[in-house]
């Protein structure tokens, strides 16, 4: 027997991977929840092209379009309506000289609209789900590291009071290390500005806790093996990064059991999280396993059910269907 469910979908086009999540809206009594029914991730790595050459190559474009076509068919199988999904692209697409051209090609060939969003919009999406995790009278530094950029948000007593995006990410730093470079003057200047921003705002708002989001910190968290839903310490993150740094790529894949597209970026990404915690003098990090796609799904939910839409940037909607405890496996 078929049981009809409203389904929403989010496609996050990152610099390292493309992720698609389809969730069903569950409603019982006065409670709404979002239940993940499908999740697909493919390491397209747009950033490899863009951060090296400034453009998305024709070969990569063809793979990109094929994968999005597959996701469109998957959404059709799940009966996701045309106005019940969002497609957002971040650092690689907004940096690419031909980013707008590629988005137009996708629109023409597949009829899918790709929204190329900036760092502030990316942070705003994630804010929709992060805010539900915060405790009163606590002050947090949120760190989100992607392939091409890092987003910082400061939450003071459940309110976001500062945010900044920096063009520093795992793929950029990996390419820099592979080239044997200490970094260009511009890259070093960006790193310095990032350090100054975290130190200044960390002191100003007395941050004492960190929240980490992104695929690499999720993997580091699982490798740290703390108790479920417990913070991971800065010392433990540093220890794992030290072990991984001393491993070859072959050992990371075959001994640590990391996927190849994770094995080469996890150390440069981890160094960004670790550095930010050191700059802010924070000893522990919460890793809730949520990100851009979850904020996109929350947005779609609020648009479909207007009564749950926040009244302003700091008023959370009710209920909070996106926040799930670890592990977030498909049931």
What does the secondary structure layout of this molecule look like, with pairings?
Blueprint: E1 7-13, E2 18-28, E3 31-42, H1 46-53, H2 58-77, E4 85-89, H3 91-95, H4 99-110, E5 115-116, H5 119-130, E6 139-145, E7 150-156, E8 159-166, H6 170-178, H7 185-204, E9 209-213, H8 215-224, E10 232-233, H9 234-245, H10 249-254, H11 260-263, H12 266-279, E11 284-286, H13 292-304
Helix pairs in contact: 2-4, 5-13, 6-12, 8-9, 8-12, 9-12
Summarize the structure.
This protein has 331 residues and is of the alpha/beta class.
Overview of this structure, please?
The longest helix has 20 residues, at 58-77. The strands form two sheets. The protein has a six-stranded mixed beta sheet, with helices on both faces. A five-stranded mixed beta sheet has the order 3-2-1-4-5, with helices on both faces. Helix content is 44%, strand content 21%. With 331 residues, the protein is an alpha/beta fold. Helix 2 crosses helix 4 (99-110), helix 6 (170-178) crosses helix 12 (266-279) and helix 8 (215-224) packs across helix 12.
Shape: globular
Structural class: alpha/beta
How far is it from the N-terminal to the C-terminal residue, by CA? 19 Å
Radius of gyration: 19 Å
| Spatial ordering of strands, largest sheet | 8-7-6-9-11-10
User: Major β-sheet, in short?
Assistant: 6 strands, mixed
Average pLDDT, all residues:
89
Task: Give the percentage of residues in beta strands.
Answer: 15-25%
The low-confidence parts are 312-331
The number of helical segments is 13
Number of strands: 11
Element string (H = helix, E = strand): EEEHHEHHEHEEEHHEHEHHHHEH
Portion in helices = 40-55%
């Amino acid at each position: 027997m078929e049981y009809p469910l409203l389904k929403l979908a989010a496609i996050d086009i990152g610099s390292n991977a493309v992720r698609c999540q389809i969730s069903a809206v569950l409603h019982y009594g006065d409670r709404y929840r979002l239940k993940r029914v499908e999740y697909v991730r493919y390491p397209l790595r747009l950033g490899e092209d863009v951060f090296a050459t400034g453009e998305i190559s024709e070969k990569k474009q063809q793979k990109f379009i094929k994968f999005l076509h597959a996701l469109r068919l998957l959404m059709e199988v799940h009966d996701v309506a045309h106005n019940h999904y969002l497609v957002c692209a971040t650092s690689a697409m907004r940096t690419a000289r031909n980013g707008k051209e590629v988005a137009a090609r996708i629109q023409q060939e597949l009829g899918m609209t790709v929204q190329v969003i900036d760092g502030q919009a990316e942070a705003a999406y994630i804010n929709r789900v992060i805010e539900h995790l915060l405790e009163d009278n606590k002050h947090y530094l949120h760190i989100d590291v992607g392939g091409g950029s890092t987003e910082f948000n400061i939450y003071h007593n459940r309110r976001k009071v500062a945010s900044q995006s920096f063009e520093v990410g795992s793929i950029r730093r990996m390419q820099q290390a592979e080239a044997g470079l200490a970094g260009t003057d511009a890259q070093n200047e960006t790193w310095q500005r990032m350090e100054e921003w975290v130190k200044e705002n960390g002191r100003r708002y007395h941050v004492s806790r960190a929240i980490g989001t992104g695929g690499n910190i999720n993997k580091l968290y699982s490798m740290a093996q703390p108790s479920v839903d417990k913070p991971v310490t800065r010392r433990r993150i540093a220890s794992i990064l030290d072990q991984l740094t001393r491993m070859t790529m072959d050992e990371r894949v075959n001994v640590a059991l990391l996927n190849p597209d994770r094995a080469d970026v996890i150390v440069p990404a981890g160094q960004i999280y670790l550095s930010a915690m050191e700059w802010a003098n924070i000893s522990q990090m919460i890793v809730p396993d949520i990100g851009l796609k979850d904020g996109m799904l929350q947005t779609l939910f609020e648009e479909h059910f207007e009564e749950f839409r926040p009244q302003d940037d700091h008023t959370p909607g009710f209920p909070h269907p996106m926040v799930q405890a670890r592990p977030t496996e498909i049931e």
